[in-house]
Structure formats: structure tokens, C-alpha cells
Amino acid sequence: MSSADILDQLCEVNREIFLGDFADCEPQEFTIELDPVPASRPCVFGNGGVTFGKRYKAFKEAALTKCKYFTGRKTGKPVACFIEHIVHRPNNPSNPYPVGDLDNYDKGPLDAMVQSGLFFEDDIQVVFLVSAKRYQRPNEQACVNILWFDFDM
């Protein structure tokens, strides 16, 4: 079994464990049909302004546009979230897994969800997060799958 196959299985197991742990909650799901991009290092200006790399900025803007199509319910409660980043596989990948820190892949989709005003008030509500990144399988589209539950604490 290749390392890529093992990684695929781990992603699937993470999703099933997450679903099992929160079986009594009502899940919501949304897919951002874009090739995931990790957040770049911010460039901070002397006047306090901040900017990010062009590729990440473009992803974040496109993700916000996609998020505006969400028709589920908004929550003000704490959120448990599973995020799966399915990244476009290059012709000759240098690694069996996508390059970029996993937590940086999570930032763009969460920020887009908050900025859309349709999912939750602030990403501070995310109190439990499981995420995974992997290359797309043959005939699979690159995207970000997000599954979450809100609950009372």
C-alpha cells in the first residue's frame, strides 16, 4: 500500500470518527469547489495594514463568493468542525501529500465562512477542529469539504 493510499484512508477514518463522536448533533455540510490554497505569511505595513500573497488572496475571494450560496442555518453556538482539503495533484508531486501547513489550509475557508455572514458569527466559535489534506483521487475534483455541528456547552 502506498503512502498516498494510507493518507486517503486516514482522511476517511477521521471523517467517520468525527461523525461518530457527534452522532446526536445535526450536521451541516458545505463544499467549496476550489483547489485549496494555504494561507501565505501576512505582509504587515507600518500603518498597520496587512496583505497576503496573490494566490491566497484570490482563493479567499473566490471562496467567499462560493460561500454566499450556502442555504443552511447560521449559528451563534460553539461549533465542532471537520475540514477535508482535497488538493489538485501535480503531474510529478514532490511529496505523497500536499505542501503547506495544514492549519494554513484551514484559515481561508473558515474566514470566508465568517465573512459571508451565513455560517457563524466568528471563527472563535470553532472549539473543536479536525482537518486533513490530501491529493485528489482520479476523477475527483479538488475542493474543500466542511462538515460542522453546533452544540450547547
Q: Total number of β-strand segments?
A: 6
Q: Which strand order do you get reading across the main beta sheet?
A: 1-6-4-5
Count up the helices. Answer: 3
- The secondary-structure element order is HEEEHEHEE
- Give the overall form: globular
Mind describing the biggest β-sheet? 4 strands, mixed
Unreliable runs:
none
Structural class: alpha+beta
| Proportion of residues in β-strands | 15-25%
> Over all CA atoms, what is the radius of gyration?
16 Å
| Average pLDDT | 86
Distance between the termini: 42 Å
Helix content: 25-40%
Describe this structure in words.
The protein contains 3 helices and 6 strands. β2 and β3 form a beta hairpin. It is 31% helix and 24% strand. It is an alpha+beta fold.
Which properties best describe this structure?
single chain; 153 residues; alpha+beta; four-stranded mixed sheet; two-stranded antiparallel sheet; 3 helices; 6 strands
Write the layout of secondary structure elements.
Elements: H1 3-21, E1 28-32, E2 43-44, E3 50-51, H2 54-67, E4 79-87, H3 102-116, E5 126-135, E6 143-150
Parallel strand pairs: 4-5
Antiparallel strand pairs: 1-6, 2-3, 4-6
Summarize the structure in short.
With 153 residues, the chain is α+β, with helices and mostly antiparallel strands. Helices cover 31% and strands 24% of the residues. α3 (102-116) links the parallel β4 and β5 (126-135).
